[in-house]
Amino acid sequence: MALRAALARFSAAKKRGTRAGGGRCEETVASNLQRLTAAIKRQKQKGAWPKALALLSAAARKGEERDLVAFTAAADVCARGSAWKAALAVLKELRSEGLAPDLVLWCALGSACSAAAQWRRALHLSLQAVREECLAPNAFSFGSAMSACSRASQWDKVLSLLEEAQSLGLANSFTFSSAITALANSADSESGWGRALCLWEEAQNAEMGNVVTFNATLTALERASQWHRACELLDSGGIRPDEVSYSSVATACARWHLWERSLALLSSCLVRPTLGGQSCLVRAMGHARAWEQALHHWNSNGLRGSEVSASTAWALEVAGLTPELRTFASSSGRKELTLLDFVQRRAPRGQLHAVLNEVRHFARKEWLKLAAGAKASVLRAVLRPGDAVLELGCFVGFSALLAAQRLRQLGGGGKVVSCELNPVSAMVARALIAWAGADDEVEVRVGLASDWIASGQLGRPDVVILDHRGSRYHEDLNALEPHLGKGARVLADNVLSPGAPLFLSFVDGRYDVTVHEVPEFRRKGRLDWMLLCAPLHRHARQSAAPAPPEFRELSAEVDRLCWRSSSAKVYGGDWQELQEQLEPVLRRFADARGWTSALSPRTNIRSPPSPGTRLWLQFSIVGRCKVSIAAEATCVEARPTLIRVAAAAANGAAHVRTESQASHALQQLEDARGAAQGAGGVLVLQYVTRPGRHEAMGQASYLAPARLKRNLEESWISAWASRNHGGAGSSDLLDSERTAVEDS
Description:
The strands form two sheets. The chain has a seven-stranded mixed β-sheet with strand order 3-2-1-4-5-7-6. The chain is α/β, with parallel strands linked by helices. One of its GO terms (biological process) is catecholamine metabolic process. This is catechol O-methyltransferase.
């Protein structure tokens, strides 16, 4: 929407604008152009491309001249904001002004497409379109094209571009760095690091090896977990290492939990490490339980308010101390602190239910990404009495409080431990948990999830909730597997929005997986996936296969957009476009494995009915009008997270308010009857055990015809089954007690 609005203003300004008159003073024109270009360039830091387009539009309305430099600056801002469509609109507007793009503009357009993971368009704009304009590509053109292919893990294409650049005499350190970076991102990491070393030697022989190429090679070794070779290359001489070099090797050692080596490396560093390196150094001190050194390093190096603060707080906590989180909090976190004040003013102290309600109420005014609504139902459904719950990604503590509330409802017992990286969020979560009177049931720990897992202080969880960084789900779960309790369940949130494609690849063949497609809380029209995973027996479990290249490409795009959202504005259209890329790929993968056959649960998942149990089903479908269906069915299959039933008969009625809805209701009724009898006579339901019967709720539209799927976004099934084979009549079905579902 933001893109369309900005482009509409852009086009309207063009129609109203006029070219500068000949009588205008040349000095004034030049001054206006400089001012316009400078104003546009100031938008680059935050990637505020709508503002850049608005400045160009304003210049057109005033009749001021716009030159190639101003248009190129606008394209650069679009590249920073990953707005490739807006960048192409800039090109179109430039041509309408009678201007011809130069090589710099073409590279800027290629960078915009590269930043948005449109590598084919980037390749075309950086090289092919340049040649079509009768321009000769330079080293930067090849570097831009290679960078785009590198981000998409198209390492074979990068190598062919490097060969072409070498044949034209255009290869330089930038092109070699791009090629090595592509190998670092390649799916075939086992051979990728070897090729990266070969390219590094080739660059050195051609006298094109500099510190940038050197660091790219170290990064390739670090990502391939080749820490010993990274250390050897660092000590080889020839290139003077910088702060990035030391930080890369220290991170490679940290991946293998070689904290002492990482600590020794960064302590002997002759240059000041990057913030990432400083964080790695403090974490190494934490693993060595040298919390005094960590605190001194943080205090004496002016690291307050940086990302190192979270690592320092973790170093203190893992040593058994309780640091004052306000000391380590950064200046950010306005929304979280406002939430805390809002809840404490409105919710009585000690009332957990009231605290949860006020958090939801706040999120309706100022959006927070909460596991509320349908997501809350899934979370409650997973828990059992006395569960030990481990949550990775606490945020403000809403999910942790929800789990504590459910454990109380199940009879008490159990414990929730939640890890949160951001000290501000952890501070707010602790305050909310204490205000709700649940501080004996919920514990919030500060620091990276991977560090807490490596510390061995998390116990043996029965339920693991993954709700932190999607690209780390698979790594953290892999590290947690030896510590999982018997019958453990893993619930992964945000698998579709923003996305965790590598996690899907990791659990394939290793876990019994069920996908729950649920709407995002307070985000109309946006769906997300929650994956419920149960570990397979070790004899049935397959070894983890390398993720498909397409998944790696999508994961990199998710990471890029998430990181950009932490420092600059990301528009809703960007998230929507990302989900449109992810959904068909992930859905094909899940459908092929039968993961999406189960319906989204609304109540607690319990033991299944035995095959042959008689079921009475009631459909309540709400679209343009309401349709009710009653069906008799028999359970034919029972699995840990779903049941399949064969429907024998179905009767129903449509409820309409106006005569104009009658014809639509008749068609909808026929569709609902077809859904009741299922595709080939099979329905798939989630279930729950209640005294004397099984109960299940889910979305009917999965098995309905395409027309019904399009029209009915909120289609729910309620099912009751008697434990005796006599069953219950439909009147008993309609009058039976229903489970109260919060957040409906």
